[in-house]
Design a protein that fits this description.
disordered C terminus; globular; 532 residues; two-stranded antiparallel sheet; 2 strands; mainly alpha; transport
Length: 532
């Protein structure tokens, strides 16, 4: 076999965006070695952001690929993967903007932080397009191990060390569980590793309803749900969010979660079409538990980071509505909401970082009267929180509206009604923060706000924070009013992805049920069966 034939079979151009990220990582590391830490602190972030935006540009050029399959079927650069890879890359770029001042002030090297962050983004991008068990696991571990390192990056902070240890122990357990489920799939399929071939071989062998396949399903869902932060695999989320460096939390809440949802879609629709009713039931149960627990427990939080942690659990429950629906509208609503979540959640974390840098605290009570001292920060945080709550005309409102419409159209009335109720609950704790910042009288200011330092954007690392803050504010507001481009992008991505089209047809053909509500919510028995 000559080189040209091998190159055509590998089709390595499918991972060109990932190649750009790898080149950027190497450039950042070499630059740091050559010019030293003090100078690379200023140059490395620019190189990293340019590389990630270059990767996004390369993704755009792949939109109309005639042959998206690369590496003999191990990687699929279809339209769905392009959207999810773009979300991961943009979340990493946004995280860099908010992390420069934070990491530099903590006394740890910025260039090394950027290299690990981009490695995590690389793992998330590869995971979004992985179509083979070995590649799925390698990409998953690339993302996970980098995330553990980022979580414990501020070595002098005991809370960061504790968060990293908890994340490592729980993450290693979830990886082992996922690997066991993958090995069962490998054995049941007679030695296949590609997801679509696994389903074909299991069906041909007559094992479509075997207990082994059900066990494999449960174990793999457990591993994926850990990445999504879904109940009951959420135990790591509050502690890790509170103890980790705040920029790391921002990336985990968007980039890592998006990669987890991409894996869930590809794995469940590709390898488990034979047990579609079973995984619909399991994912519906996870969605119900996540929406209820995430939004109810958030009511009692006193720390902004823990509040956003439980908020992210509830948001994962909302997004899973699109997954259990299994229709074209369901998948496209997931993509739309994740894009919206990228804007509003990164904006919220940028505000939290800015406030903590100026006051040294993230307690909700300390935000009291902030409008008097920092109107821009108050406006940006208010807009992002109201968008997370689903208040019109922010982009989060249209994201939830699209998700709930897709669920209602499929007949998942119980899930939609529960989503509406828990959304109303979430609005309370979001508006509580906004009220704290805006309504308080001057004499009711917190001590942190009374001693608020003079705003100086010229300090090193503050200008990128300001840019990120303004971009998030404008995007969260503008894409709510002008959301049609995002709607079109999500719909076209689903239409151009054959796997999702086949999954929707398969779901319709089998008349699958979204949930057997007797085991989850007996009062919803008559409401939650989809008309697919």
């Amino acid at each position: 076999m000559d080189f040209a034939t091998l190159a055509s079979q590998l089709n390595a151009g499918t991972i060109l965006p990932e190649g750009v990220v790898i080149a950027t990582i190497m450039t950042v590391i070499i630059t740091d070695l050559i010019i030293g830490r003090s100078r690379s602190t200023k140059i490395a972030p620019l190189i990293a952001i340019a590389g990630l935006l270059g990767a996004v540009a390369m993704l755009i050029t792949q939109w109309d690929l005639t042959n998206p399959i690369g590496f003999l079927g191990a990687f699929n650069a279809d339209a769905m993967s392009i959207v999810f890879r773009g979300i991961v890359a943009l979340s990493a770029a946004g995280t860099i903007l908010m992390s420069i001042r934070y990491v530099d002030q903590s006394g740890t090297p910025v260039a090394e932080f950027l290299a690990i962050l981009m490695t995590a983004a690389l793992g998330g991008m590869l995971l979004s397009g992985a179509n083979e068990l070995v590649m799925v696991f390698v990409a998953l571990e690339t993302l996970s191990i980098s995330s553990y390192l980022l979580t414990g990056y501020t070595k002098r902070d005991p809370r960061s060390n504790e968060a990293a240890l908890k994340y490592l122990l729980i993450g290693a357990s979830s990886s082992a569980i996922f690997l066991y489920g993958s090995s069962l799939l490998y054995g049941l399929s007679g030695g296949e590793t590609q997801l679509d071939k696994i389903a074909t071989q299991i069906t041909a062998a007559g094992l479509g309803q075997s207990i082994g396949l059900v066990i494999a399903l449960v174990f793999t869902i457990a591993g994926v749900a850990f990445k999504m932060g879904a109940v009951p695999f959420h135990q790591w989320t509050p502690d890790v969010y509170e103890g980790s460096p705040t920029p790391v939390v921002a990336f985990l809440s968007v980039g890592s979660k998006a990669a987890g949802f991409a894996l869930a879609i590809r794995l469940l629709t590709g390898a488990f079409p034979m047990v579609i009713e079973e995984w619909h039931f399991v994912m519906t149960a996870l969605a119900v538990l996540s929406m209820v627990l995430g939004n109810v427990v958030a009511l009692a939080q006193t720390s902004m980071k823990r509040l956003l942690a439980y908020s992210s659990i509830g948001q994962a429950g909302f997004i899973m509505i699109g997954l259990v629906v299994g229709s074209n509208a369901g998948y496209s609503s997931m993509m739309f909401y994740l894009i919206a979540y990228l804007m509003m959640n990164l904006g919220a974390f940028t505000c939290v970082i800015l406030f903590s840098l100026r006051t040294g605290t993230d307690q909700i009570s300390e935000y009291s009267g902030l409008y008097q001292k920092d109107p821009l920060l108050t406006l940006a945080l208010s807009v992002c929180l109201l968008s997370l709550g689903g208040i019109p005309p922010m982009v989060g409102f249209f994201g939830k509206l699209y998700l709930f419409w897709a669920g209602w159209q499929a007949g998942a009335y119980g899930l939609v009604l529960l989503g509406l109720v828990t959304s109303v609950i979430s609005i309370y704790y979001y508006i509580r923060v906004v009220k704290m910042m805006v309504v308080k009288e001057p004499q009711e200011m917190s001590d942190a706000v009374l001693n608020y330092p003079e705003i100086d954007w010229s300090v090193f690392g503050m200008r990128p924070l300001q840019v990120g803050l303004i971009i998030s504010l404008i995007a969260t507001s503008a894409f709510g009013i002008l959301s049609n481009p995002l709607f079109s992008l999500s719909n076209v991505a689903v239409e151009k992805t054959p796997m999702l089209q086949a999954a929707a047809v398969n779901s319709d053909a089998k008349q699958s049920k979204v949930i057997k509500a007797e085991a989850v919510a007996p009062q919803l028995v008559s409401l939650v069966s989809p008309k697919q």
